[in-house]
Specification:
Chain A: This is Transcription factor TGA9 isoform X2. The complex is a heterodimer of chains A (484) and B (127). With 484 residues, chain A is mainly alpha-helical. Helices cover 76% and strands 0% of the residues of chain A. Chain A is extended, with a radius of gyration of 44 Å. By secondary structure, chain B is α/β, with parallel strands linked by helices. The chains are: A mainly alpha (484), B alpha/beta (127).
Chain lengths: 484, 127
């Protein structure tokens, strides 16, 4: 019975190698030990070869169709020896199906040409080799549960040495080998299943991350446009609020753009471009400035203190800070020396600009002073009983700060626009270049100051010593003079 | 700068007739036309203080209406808010009866040099 089965199994071994290797009866025995496809197959093949020299494809081909219903059509084309015995045992069927469900596509590549080859030859040895070609990649495929196709061509090297080994091992009981096979199959199934689940989980994770990323981007966009702080405790976390952090990032990007604009203007001036071209470049630069004022407006809504304390600027700039930015009148004063030659009308224009900015600054400063005074009064006054009420009032007054920063930025923006109006295109281009360079140098000063060499103790001592020396020298020289 | 509280002082027959005008916007316009420079303000507002200081610094003598001190100030405030469209109702500046706007417009017009001619035209500024 068993031998008959083996024989009939052998009938279709070349065409459906891994699946047919296991005679159905042995599946029932689950004595597990390390399974070796090759050993089993070799044993079966040897037995067949020893027992019968019949061509392997005398069996009914139709049975194959029934035995492996899940197999793709290609297999049906190749004539094969088959037996219904495999089908009769559900175990084998399931094992076979399980195997066939893994890596079908690529396996096809291997097996059908080989199958075709086998069908055309009656050489047993050739078939044996081909079996090995198939079984080794099959093993590897099943073990890794991947669908990457492997060529059978590289396998012969692998197959031959192992087949030599295996020829000697054929004496093991078929039952045990089959049990090994069964166990190995089960393990492979599990591995493949786990792999599939892992892949599925990973893909799901990717998808959810993608969705989260797009949501975060949307939130960020909304936060930027509205100046709100989305998610998480209202700026309490860390030293810097979300609105401030966002503004700092945008300001950094603005500075990079500023550098590009300045380079563009510089090149345009040196290249002596036409006024029309220069005007276009200049308008771009003005828009660039408008952009930072717009961003500051947004930031003022979410974190006015960040702007008004100048934490977004460098230390040297902070030294000259007025209401969250540069002082327009100071800028105009600085420019008047740099802007020669000017027509008389332009001189008047610049002079008026300086006066009006000074007046406007004065008015805003006085308004802010009154706000501070009012705030001080509110915080200072109030008993323990209505302290909460006073705090609420104080909070209300603080909201006015945003208005002052906005007006100050408005003043700065208007000043720049007026400069653009009063000056010619070329003069304005030079003017804006000067402004950009000025603030660039101020920022550089901050960096230099921060990185200056500091020999604190020694330095101070030397300084003290030097001062006293100097005094002594002065005194002695005075004495000398008095002698004269 | 002189402060006006409609219900106190300036109480004569003509003002009674004028006070009968119920529509707040009409009242705003009427008040605005009454002087060369008119500022609608709130006594507690710091920005209003700033705009007042601006005009005084330029040597202008504006007429100031403190809406929180006016019994019908609330409706005037609402009318002004509708007029301006957004933000706070005060400060609002009228020069020569014409609306200049809130603080940002006043600032902008001063910087771009249109405020002084406007003041001169309205007779609020000489020289």
């Amino acid at each position: 019975m068993a031998s008959h089965r083996i024989e009939s199994d052998l009938g279709h071994i070349p065409y459906a190698v891994p699946h047919i290797i296991h005679p159905p009866s042995t599946f029932i025995n689950q004595e597990g030990s390390a399974f070796d496809f090759g050993e089993l197959e070799e044993a079966i093949v040897l037995q067949t070869v020893n027992d019968t020299k019949q061509p392997l494809y005398t069996e009914k081909p139709a049975a194959t169709l029934e035995m492996f219903p899940s197999w793709p059509m290609r297999f049906h084309h190749t004539p094969r020896g088959s037996s219904k015995s495999g089908e009769e045992s559900t175990d084998s069927g399931s094992a076979v199906h399980a195997l066939s469900s893994r890596g079908e596509g690529s396996r096809l590549e291997l097996e059908s040409p080989v199958g075709r080859k086998a069908s055309s030859s009656s050489d047993h040895h050739q078939m044996i080799d081909q079996m090995h070609h198939l079984q080794i990649p099959q093993q590897l495929e099943v073990a890794s549960a991947s669908n990457s196709p492997r060529t059978g061509i590289s396998q012969p090297q692998l197959a031959r040495p192992t087949s030599e080994k295996r020829r000697g091992a054929g004496s093991n009981s078929e039952r045990m080998l089959d049990a090994k096979t069964l166990r190995r199959l089960a393990q492979n199934r599990e591995a493949a299943k786990k792999s599939r689940l892992r892949k599925k989980a990973y893909v799901q994770q990717l998808e959810s991350s993608r969705i989260r990323l797009s949501q975060l981007e949307q939130d960020l966009q909304r936060a930027r446009s509205q100046g709100f702080f989305m998610g998480g405790g209202g700026g309490a976390g860390g030293n810097i609020s979300s609105g401030a952090a966002i503004f700092d990032m945008e300001y950094a990007r603005w500075l990079e753009d500023d550098h590009k604009h300045m380079t563009e203007i510089r090149t345009a001036l040196q290249a002596h471009l036409s006024d029309g071209d220069l005007r276009v470049i200049l308008d771009g630069y003005i828009t660039h400035y408008d952009e930072i004022f717009r961003l500051k407006g947004v930031a003022a809504k979410s974190d006015v203190f960040h702007l008004i304390t100048g934490m977004w600027t460098t230390p040297a700039e902070r030294c000259f800070l007025w209401m969250g930015g540069f002082r327009p009148s100071e800028l105009v004063k600085m420019l008047t020396a740099q802007l020669d030659p000017l027509t008389e009308q332009q001189v008047m224009g610049i002079y008026n600009l300086q006066r009006s900015t000074e007046q406007a600054e004065g008015a805003l400063s006085q308004g802010l002073e009154q706000l501070q005074q009012s705030l001080t009064d509110t915080i200072a006054s109030g008993s323990v009983n209505d302290s909460m009420h006073h705090m609420a009032v104080a909070l209300g007054k603080l909201t006015n700060l945003e208005g002052f920063v906005r007006q100050a930025d408005n003043l700065r923006q208007q000043t720049l626009h007026q400069l653009h109006r009063v000056l010619t295109v070329r003069q304005a281009a030079r003017c804006f270049l000067v402004i950009g360079e000025y603030y660039g140098r101020l920022r550089a000063l901050s960096s230099l100051w921060a990185s200056r060499p500091r020999e604190t103790f020694i330095g101070d001592d030397i300084l003290c010593q030097a001062t006293t020396d100097l005094q002594m020298v002065q005194q002695s020289s005075q004495n000398h003079f008095s002698n004269f | 700068m002189h402060y006006h509280a409609e219900s106190y002082g300036n109480y004569n027959a003509s003002t009674v007739r004028q006070n009968a005008a119920v529509d707040p916007l009409e009242r705003v316009v009427r008040l605005a036309s009454g002087s060369a420079v008119v500022i609608f303000s709130l006594s507690t507002c710091c920005m209003c203080h700033a705009v007042k200081r601006l005009f005084c610094g330029m040597g202008v003598n504006p007429t100031v209406y403190e809406l929180d001190l006016d019994p019908r100030g609330k409706e005037l405030e609402r009318a002004l808010m509708r007029l301006l469209g957004d933000g706070s109702a005060v400060p609002v500046v009228f020069i020569g009866g014409k609306l200049v706007g809130a603080m940002d417009r006043v600032m902008a017009s001063h910087i771009n040099g249109t405020l002084v001619p406007l003041l001169k035209e309205a007779g609020a500024l000489w020289l």
